[in-house]
Design a protein that fits this description.
The chain is 79% helix and 0% strand. It is an all-alpha fold and 469 residues long.
């Protein structure tokens, strides 16, 4: 269990780092003199890098020892944090974020795969709930910490706070991390890595090109990027299907032969798109339209994040006792309802209504994530846990990056159009925020519709999954 807690500490540091940036982006846009659609790449590039790195973790977790992977991941995260701290401008800061994301992308599947291998099926919900408690503390602390720091100091202080925690986690892992499972000597397929990068990168970059400041050629670049991304993803899938016949796939797609796993992953992707897009757009709305400062924006997000963390163990026990639908159906409905409320906000929406809406959304996410993680991976055979975790985390990150790009683009497009007509920023940004939140709300209805089809797997996972060798 010491290994799991070490991984939880590392996950806490990574999520703390990621959640501080949402509040910081409006400040960075001003300090670095960049528009919102460029500043959001500090978040989008982070998630996109993880989406490129995570497909390789199914292979890496089988090829290298747990200790080797942990030290490599935390070293990359620590180095990236140092680069961000010392960055002289946007370009170097973006490079630092990418290096950080490389470490984070390895850490999350490592945590989930280790959990599945160590914890017995009948206790997985409860343990996933404890994971939820720990990793939800970071979203609770992150935005509020960022808001407080940014009110009195530079954005560099955010990285100065994360860096020593990362160094301590790395030192603890180097001393105490042990190896779990056996390694293999399968070769890595470089072509698969290239196709993965072009596929996921092309799709998210293409989305970000639509609706910026109306630059000529932006839509054309977006379409070309989406086409290249789509073709690359198709080739990536074909390549994996060929390679998995001899167990050499970078990402074994036989995990999708499980209907339960597939539906759970789709629901997770929809929730990730809505959640990450909203968490990046909401601080921009709160500061640019509602007129709150960074600290106040963080405090609006705080109650919901605390609730999400505290309810994690409760949701885990309910999942173990009652199964999936008791949590997932009302959970997805609550997320969708909160998003539809956000689609009605304006310049004069009172702050306490936003706190309530964010709390409802956070409770809904807590009710959804525990059963989705447990039910999806629990539907697979043990030898596919690492690939199932890699695929789940990949699609979650791509959904999140697409959500950030899509909602920010919609917001920025309407904001710039209003400003060009002579409106103040608050008046121009309000309809942009409403339209972006409405799009997220409509997309979230897909999760509501599919939630009743996800079920708790039998404890005998080999009987649950029809794929495999």
């Amino acid at each position: 269990m010491r290994v799991i807690w070490l991984l939880l500490v590392a996950a806490f540091v990574a999520i703390l780092n990621e959640t501080t940036m949402g509040i910081a982006i409006p400040h960075l846009n001003t300090d670095l003199g960049i528009p919102p659609e460029l500043g959001q790449w500090l978040t989008s590039a982070f998630m996109l890098t993880m989406a490129i790195v995570i497909p390789t973790t199914g292979y890496l977790l089988q090829r290298f020892t747990t200790r080797q992977i942990f030290i490599a991941a935390m070293s990359a995260f620590t180095l990236g944090t140092l680069v961000c701290l010392l960055a002289p401008g946007f370009a170097v800061l973006l490079v630092g974020r990418v290096i950080q994301a490389g470490g984070t992308g390895i850490m999350m599947p490592l945590l989930m795969t280790t959990m599945m291998n160590v914890v017995p099926p009948q206790s997985r919900g409860r343990m996933m709930g404890r994971v939820g408690l720990v990793i939800s503390l970071a979203p609770a602390i992150g935005p509020t910490l960022a808001g407080a720091v940014l009110n009195v100091a530079s954005w560099r202080v955010l990285f100065a706070i994360v860096l020593p925690i990362a160094i301590i986690a790395l030192a603890m892992g180097a001393k105490w991390m042990t190896n779990l499972g056996e390694t293999t000597s399968a070769p890595i397929d470089v072509l698969s890595i290239v196709l993965s990068a072009f596929g996921f990168g092309g799709v998210v970059y293409g989305l970000s090109q639509f609706g910026g400041e109306g630059e000529s050629g932006g839509a054309t670049v977006g379409v070309v990027s989406l086409v290249i991304g789509g073709i690359s993803l198709a080739l990536f899938v074909w390549r994996q299907i060929v390679l998995q016949r001899v167990d050499d796939a970078l990402l074994d797609l036989r995990v999708f032969r499980s209907r339960n796993y597939t539906i759970a992953v789709i629901v997770m992707a929809i929730l990730a798109l809505s959640m990450f897009g909203t968490l990046v757009l909401l601080p921009q709305y709160l500061q640019n339209v509602a007129g709150l400062d960074a600290l106040q924006s963080g405090l609006v997000l705080l109650p919901g994040s605390v609730l999400m963390g505290l309810l994690g163990p409760v949701m885990g026990r309910i999942y173990d006792a009652r199964g999936t639908r008791t949590l997932l159906i009302p959970g997805t409905i609550m997320v969708s309802a909160a998003l539809f409320f956000y689609s009605t906000v304006g310049e004069h929406t009172v702050w306490w209504l936003l706190v309530i809406a964010q709390a409802i959304m956070s409770v809904g996410l807590a009710m959804s994530f525990t059963p989705l993680f447990s039910a999806s991976l629990g539907s697979l055979r043990r030898h596919l846990y690492s690939h199932g975790s890699a695929a789940l985390n990949t699609i979650q990150q791509v959904g999140g990056a697409a959500g950030v790009a899509l909602l920010t683009v919609v917001y920025s497009s309407i904001l710039h159009a209003g400003e060009h007509e002579g409106l103040e920023t608050a008046a121009a940004g309000a309809p942009g925020a409403r339209m972006a939140f409405l799009i997220a709300a409509i997309i979230s209805l897909g999760a509501v519709a599919l939630s009743s089809f996800v079920r708790k797997p039998a404890d005998d996972v080999d009987a649950e999954f029809v794929g495999g060798h």
